Amino acid sequence: MKSLGALAVPGANAGKEPEVEQLLKPGPGLPSARQPGIRQPGDPHGHMSVDRLEQQLAFVRELDRLKTVLRRTSLIDRSRRENTAEHSWHLTAMALALAEYAPSGADLPHVVEMLVVHDMVEIDAGDTFAFDVSANLDKGARETAAAQRLFGLLPPDVGDRLRACWEEFEANETPSARFANALDRLQGLIVNDAPGDGGTWKLHGVSRGQVLERMAPIETGAPGLWPVVVEAIERAVEAGHIA
Amino acid sequence: MKSLGALAVPGANAGKEPEVEQLLKPGPGLPSARQPGIRQPGDPHGHMSVDRLEQQLAFVRELDRLKTVLRRTSLIDRSRRENTAEHSWHLTAMALALAEYAPSGADLPHVVEMLVVHDMVEIDAGDTFAFDVSANLDKGARETAAAQRLFGLLPPDVGDRLRACWEEFEANETPSARFANALDRLQGLIVNDAPGDGGTWKLHGVSRGQVLERMAPIETGAPGLWPVVVEAIERAVEAGHIA
Lengths: 243, 243
Known about the structure:
2 copies of one chain form a homodimer.
Chain A: H1 17-24, H2 50-63, E1 70-74, E2 81-83, H3 84-97, H4 108-117, H5 122-125, H6 133-137, H7 139-151, H8 156-171, H9 175-193, H10 199-203, H11 208-221, H12 226-238
Antiparallel strand pairs in A: 1-2
């Protein structure tokens, strides 16, 4: 049995056929027999190339690092800062719960796909705080390099599809991308607004004008949700969190 | 202007119409004029009911709590335990990267939708360790009560759709659900296997038979990925992490 190199502990599989065969025997609770050979390229049952699968698994393991990229925003309970992986999940859930606010022409499954992918580049490029002007100057270059490396881990057909999702999100031109971007902005607003403490707006002295500019994509990408923005900003001004 | 009660800081909006009108004037960086009135129920531009939106936003805020539900598994870098929100994101990304291993009849967008939803009930029910026999005895009852409350926060049409996703995932009968379940099991295997330390398998003295039983849904839900399971278990046995 050929080793799946990318997953292998070096040397662990060398000449270990007998042990593999032991494993392949049905054990306790194992409900059905093996299907020998499904891992061979071109096999009609598995449709799998070992090299191709190795690339895909390397990508999946690499994605784990997005859980360690911290955003400026905190959880609503303010126990800690939010990471980009859980933020991305929150956005996909918002897309399902708020689907009816998508603009005409948006395709919800594609919105969700874009939201899953949209911040993967932060594995290399890090999170860039929306209101940090200097950090945003080279954000594009950093994220493009990250996309090149990260999506390049995948077989080209898969990598190209995910990269196209990221590029569409960034361009913010299609109805699906505009809804995805609106949700991204709205999520930041909700976690800043919900506890009533002003969140990162207050912490970093962000102005009402800056927040309105940051939230502007909601007005076109999910116009039915714009009043949520206006009311949250109103509350933050009233409470003295932003001026 | 009527307050969006669910988002409101108590009293913050009372009689504040003039300030709202100030906010509605284009400010610095605000690229376009407001669209007054889109927040009214039945409005042709916003398609929005205030009560309905309040329910949806309450649900979105409630979802933030899934970020604080810890699983037994740790990140691949072993810096901390994984939470259920970021785990859910990882699964959706795996569905995109490994889509070609879905069984015949699976619908990828629906797989992703199910993966977004599948662990939401853990907000109330907590994560139940796969190998904890006693905790799994009342898992179903705890999660059903959680689904009732959580999806009940939403307008019925939306809540019913998400609940149906959760139920389909749990039943594990449709091709889409079988692929989603396979990915859920595979993700646990990958984070246990990747660093070569045996992860929770070693930590909790899990046997080879238990791991094989836990992973069995992969064999039917993503047969092309089954060799990944066999090889990872082989490595763990070789390394002495499981017996």
